[in-house]
Design goal:
The structure holds two protein chains of two kinds.
Chain A (H helix, E strand, L loop, with lengths): L20 H10 L4 E4 L6 H12 L3 E5 L6 H5 E6 L2 E6 L1 H8 L2 E5 L6 H4 L11 E4 L4 E4 L5 E6 L12 H4 L3 E4 L5 H12 L3 H15 L12 H12 L4 H10 L6 H14 L2
Parallel strand pairs in A: 1-8, 1-9, 2-5, 5-8
Antiparallel strand pairs in A: 3-4, 6-7
Helix pairs in contact in A: 7-8, 7-9, 8-9, 8-11, 9-10, 10-11
Chain B lengths: L9 H11 L4 H17 L2 H16 L5 H17 L4 H13 L6 H15 L2 H18 L1 E3 L3 E4 L4 H14 L2 H15 L3 H8 L4 H10 L3 E2 H16 L5 E4 L12 E3 L2 E5 L1 E2 L2 E4 L15 E4 L1 H18 L3 E2 L5 H22 L3 H8 L16 H13 L8 H15 L5 H15 L26 E2 L29 E7 L4 E13 L5 H10 L1 H14 L2 E9 L4 E2 L1 H12 L9 E7 L3 E8 L15 H19 L3 E8 L5 E7 L7 H8 L9 H13 L5 E8 L11 H17 L2 E7 L8 H5 L3 E3 L6 H13 L1
Helix pairs in contact in B: 2-4, 3-4, 4-6, 5-7, 6-8, 7-9, 9-10, 9-11, 12-13, 13-14, 13-15, 14-16, 14-18, 16-17, 17-18, 19-23, 20-22, 20-27, 22-27, 24-25
The chains are: A alpha/beta, B alpha/beta.
């Protein structure tokens, strides 16, 4: 049997609630309803799931989805051994067996045919058929499925099927409002609020450009990076350029504009 | 100088006069004055050279003008360029004199003083004269090719405008501009004159291109991004030109139609302030540079400040002085608020804001209100202003107190401004002579939005409200033209806005005709159908026998294992993986509809046009089956002023009777200006959201047009258009029906072309080509 404890979150992750999401999630967990979390990149989706797993005291198995991922990467596969083949459980199967929260991050990155395997786990059946092995797994009572995705950059090709979407309850996350975000950046990195305020201000200028050449604004995560660099002794303007502007764009016009915003913010 | 004023004694002057020995009475009148000036600035040798050269000008038989101008202007020129510039200049004039261009000597001399002021150095002057000389040689006409006999038509105009031109562009820019004029109008005297006297539109456009500084058009997107990101607003920018209005410099402003900005801002280079601390640390010693872009940003920040925080107030009860003061205070208020938002703006504003010297204005003789307000405005902006006037300090404090309470308001600031005017009023403010120096804040707008008026006019009756403009009734036929540049390979530059493309819907014919064509090719269509089915995206394809794969292929793995156990070498390719093959291609088919299509195809009784029609119908049908976004356009041209782009099928239209009708009515006429049509078609294709963009060009000959003598020109332009499209991520492919196409088609399209010799097979080949390209 897999060691359950390795998936446990030991230390309380810092999570600043934006609204009632903690209580709502707890309610969903009590009923073991699958949860979907939507929101732009770096706004705290994964942190929230981690925090909830810690709060509920359940193991958390995270799978970062990608285009090459297949159903067997989730469910499990036969591998070759000296004397034949052996079945190896995939992360989804493991979670269903040990009663963990299975978190599929950026689910739309996985191909649609892959995501269909979660269907039987997400309705009243709560089972996972392993057709290759000829086994039907009854999900553990503590098992819950959480998925997240970023609706911002999905193209026509990257969307969830309606039949998948309609199996989940959903949260819509966004970047926190200015005050809250300042608090988060300050708390997470230990910088003072004045500096955090400036960083958040620059972050907001970039978010205004979404759809005008930027697919995504500067995320809270990047703001935290910038604050970390500054705390490490880097000159604020350089830190901002490095952490906030260069990663998000190759467009010279946008880069110039954001560089100017940095200059305008740090007097 | 060794010659003291006493040296202008009559005998000495007489000696000079004899040395000049010029009989024109006009010269005698001004000679003494000119001599006095010359003596004060020229050396003894300089005087000799001066008189000797004046003597030459006098005798060269061009009347009194040249010598008069020279006598008057040379001393000033010599002070800017140095006396040693004379031999080069005289050499140049002598060359003009020996050519048929003697008429240009006077304009040259007349503009010489102003030109030399712009050019500063002798080297630059030499460049300028070399440029003029080359210009002269290339535009002076000749018959029979031996003697040059006709004067250059553009040269005098060029000299007349050269000071202005040099004010706008560098020597290098001027050279490009001249080059363009000679190349395009070298053999057309009237147009050449228009060009060099800045009368023609493309002359101005070219000049604008060569201008130094930051052009608004180049930076519109950056500024738009600036407004969006920092100020969460957007605006329409309307450029105005500073160039053609020398006296009244227009000021930025905004109204419902948009923000008016100058079309160009030069980088502003200011001498560094004397103090050593603070701001100028990072700058090179000696100067502060503010880029043109930052100047635009400053204007926008100021205007946005007004848009955000200013409310219009009634102007009727205020005197002009009071209004001026209110404007200054309000400007300072919105800037203070803007700086509250972005503290870094202060650096920018401070650099751009003039810093009047405290006692520069004499209140006894001049109206100093402007000066006082400019100082106050500086003080409100710059905490380290260093002024000590008591009133000024008091009001600066009151302003800051007011702002400390919050955003304040236009009304509150207006009352502060009024009390300022009342406190500091002086009798001399009414004087006509106003101190203007160093008081203009050029990044601020004209504040027209600040004022509202109770009475709209002083007239008893107003008619303005009732007048309606009834001009808009005229119906538009087609769309207004779009202008595209054309590439000139001779100079490796674009001719701005050279070709005008008119787009119109293709007239409609009978759609049944196309259906008949499709029935005729039913057998071919069936074959195509089979090929299409293979192409259609099939969501998942399994690839077996992979060494590295996503999944174990159990059958193969077991077979390998058996091999392994029985001692044979096992096949290591025991995995399999999956692949989805999707399609995301947008296609644009561009049809050459020039006159030559009406010819019969060799070995057939059908014209090329009819065969193209069949081919296009089949292709359109095939692409429609595939479901790729697809558009069809046709083009022909009748000179650069009339390139027609005929819309046959748009991306949002289906393959229906409407489209078939247009295709059925296809007609051929005129010539082939391919580059312009490609650029136009590209702007539709570019707007498509697809991974791959394909532009197919079906043509039967090389690009050509009746107004272009040089065959290479349009070929090179088309080649340039292909490059541009490539940069935009559009793949171009040419299907050429001209058997002799090999001579040019590779130059334009590189390897991306097919020549179809047997035109009869076009209907079959075109869809096949398409399928092959997009497989």
């Amino acid at each position: 049997m897999t060691d359950k404890d390795q998936y446990k979150i030991r230390k309380e992750p810092f999570y600043q609630a934006q609204g009632k999401e903690v209580a709502l999630y707890e309610a969903a967990y009590v009923a073991r309803l699958p949860v979907m979390i939507k929101g732009p990149t770096g706004c705290g989706k994964s942190r929230f799931v981690e925090y909830m797993a810690w709060r509920l005291g359940k193991p958390l198995i995270t799978v970062a989805c990608n285009e090459d991922m297949t159903a067997s990467d989730l469910v499990g596969r036969y591998i070759l051994e000296a004397n034949g083949t052996r079945w190896l459980d995939g992360p989804l199967t493991t979670a269903a067996r040990i009663g963990a929260i299975c978190y599929l991050d950026e689910i739309v990155e996985a191909r649609q045919d892959t995501t269909v395997v979660i269907h039987p786990l997400t309705d009243h059946r709560r089972t996972l058929p392993l057709d290759k092995k000829g086994e039907l797994i009854e999900a553990h009572a503590d098992f819950q499925l959480v998925i997240s995705y970023n609706p911002g950059y999905q193209s026509l090709l990257k969307d969830l099927k309606q039949s998948t979407k309609q199996r989940f309850t959903a949260f819509e996350f966004d970047y926190p409002d200015a005050q809250l975000e300042i608090g988060i950046v300050a708390k997470e990195t230990g910088t003072d609020e004045a500096l955090a305020g400036k960083l958040v201000k620059i972050g907001r200028t970039a978010r205004n450009l979404k759809g005008h050449g930027l697919d995504e604004g500067i995320s809270t995560r990047l703001l935290v990076y910038a604050a970390t660099l500054i705390k490490g002794g880097v000159e604020p303007r350089d830190a901002c350029r490095m952490a906030l502007v260069r990663p998000i764009t190759d467009d010279a016009d946008i880069r110039d504009t954001l560089d100017h915003a940095i200059d305008a913010t740090f007097a | 100088m060794s010659e003291a004023p006493t040296a202008y004694e009559h005998p000495l002057m007489k000696g000079y006069r004899e040395q000049l020995s010029c009989g024109f009475p006009q010269v005698a009148e001004v000679f003494e004055d000119c001599m006095a000036e010359a003596l004060s600035v020229l050396s003894r040798e300089g005087i000799d050279a001066y008189l000797e050269y004046a003597r030459f000008l006098c005798k060269m038989g061009r009347g009194v003008e040249p010598v008069l101008i020279f006598l008057e202007e040379w001393p000033t020129i010599a002070t800017t360029l140095g006396e040693s510039a004379l031999p080069a200049i005289s050499d140049f004039i002598r060359k003009m004199w020996k050519s048929p261009n003697g008429r240009a000597i006077v304009p040259f001399l007349q503009s010489l003083a102003a030109t030399s002021r712009r050019l500063h150095s002798q080297e630059q002057m030499q460049d300028y004269m070399n440029l003029a000389l080359a210009f002269m040689e290339r535009t002076t006409g000749s018959i029979h090719g031996i003697h040059t006999t006709f004067a250059s038509p553009g040269l005098p105009e060029f000299f007349t405008h050269s000071p202005y031109l040099l004010n706008q562009v560098s020597i290098a820019g001027l050279k490009n501009w001249v080059e363009y004029g000679i190349r395009n109008y070298g053999d057309h005297p009237e147009r050449q004159q228009d060009y060099f006297s800045l009368q023609s539109a493309d002359s101005r456009a070219m000049l604008q291109k060569e201008r130094h500084g930051t052009l608004l058009v180049d930076n519109e997107r950056k500024l738009d991004l600036y407004l969006r990101s920092l100020w969460q607003t957007d605006a329409h920018f309307v450029p105005y030109s500073l160039k053609f209005d020398e006296l009244r410099k227009p000021i930025p402003y905004y109204d419902q139609l948009g923000i008016r900005l100058p079309d160009v801002y030069d980088d502003l280079i200011l001498p560094s302030p004397p103090q050593g601390e603070g701001e100028s640390d990072r700058l090179p010693a000696g100067e502060i540079v503010i880029s043109g872009l930052d100047r635009y940003r400053a204007v926008l920040a100021h205007i946005v400040g007004h848009r955000r925080w200013t409310t219009a107030i009634f102007a009727d009860n205020y005197s002009p002085f009071q209004r001026m003061a209110i404007e200054f205070f309000e400007d300072a208020r919105v800037e203070a608020l803007a700086m509250r938002e972005y503290p870094g703006l202060r650096r920018l504003f401070i650099k751009l804001h003039p810093k009047p010297v405290e006692d520069a204005c004499d209140p006894e003789s001049t109206s100093c209100l402007r000066h006082r307000l400019a100082m106050l405005s500086r003080a409100l902006l710059d905490p380290r202003h260093g002024y000590c006037d008591a009133q000024l300090l008091d009001f600066t404090q009151r302003f800051h107190d007011l702002m400390a309470q919050g955003e304040s308001s236009t009304e509150a600031i207006a009352s502060l401004a009024l009390s300022y005017v009342a406190k500091t009023r002086r009798q001399s403010d009414q004087f006509a002579k106003v101190h203007f120096d160093n008081t203009e804040v050029d990044y601020r707008d004209d504040n027209r939005h600040l004022w509202r008026f109770h009475e709209q006019s002083d007239d008893e009756e107003m008619f303005d409200d009732h007048r309606k403009i009834e001009l808009e009734e005229e119906e538009l036929q087609g769309l207004p033209p779009r202008h595209y540049p054309e590439w000139d390979y001779n100079s490796q530059t674009y001719r701005p806005d050279w070709a005008s493309v008119y787009e119109a819907l293709h007239p409609k014919g009978n759609p049944a005709h196309i259906d008949q064509l499709l029935i005729k090719h039913a057998a071919l269509a069936k074959r195509l159908k089979r090929m299409l089915d293979l192409l259609k995206p099939q969501d998942k394809v399994r690839i077996r026998y992979q060494e590295e794969g996503s999944e174990l292929d159990l059958d193969v793995a077991l077979r390998s294992l058996i091999d392994f156990k029985s001692g044979a070498t096992p096949d290591p390719r025991i995995n399999m993986s999956h692949k989805t093959s999707g399609r995301d291609i947008a296609v644009m088919l561009l049809l050459d509809l020039s006159e030559s299509l009406n010819e019969k195809a060799s070995g057939s009784d059908q014209t090329i046009l009819e065969l193209s029609q069949e081919a296009v119908s089949l292709l359109a049908w095939a692409v429609d089956k595939l479901g790729d976004p697809f558009a069809i356009g046709g083009f022909h041209s009748n000179t650069r002023h009339d390139v027609r782009y005929l819309h046959i099928k748009g991306y949002s239209e289906h393959w229906d009777d409407e489209v078939k009708g247009r295709l059925a009515a296809m007609e051929a006429a005129y010539s082939t200006r391919m580059g312009a049509a490609m650029r136009h078609a590209a702007h539709y294709l570019q707007a498509q959201k697809a991974d791959k963009k394909l532009m197919l060009i079906l043509t039967d000959g090389e690009p050509s047009d009746v107004d272009t003598k040089d065959e290479r020109l349009l070929i090179e332009d088309a080649r340039q258009a292909v490059k541009e499209l490539d940069q935009k991520g559009i793949y171009t492919y040419c299907i050429n029906l001209d058997p002799k196409a090999d001579e040019y088609v590779a130059d334009i399209f590189g390897k991306q072309y097919t020549v179809i010799d047997n035109i009869q097979r076009l209907p079959e080949r075109l869809p096949q080509l398409f399928i092959a390209l997009t497989k």
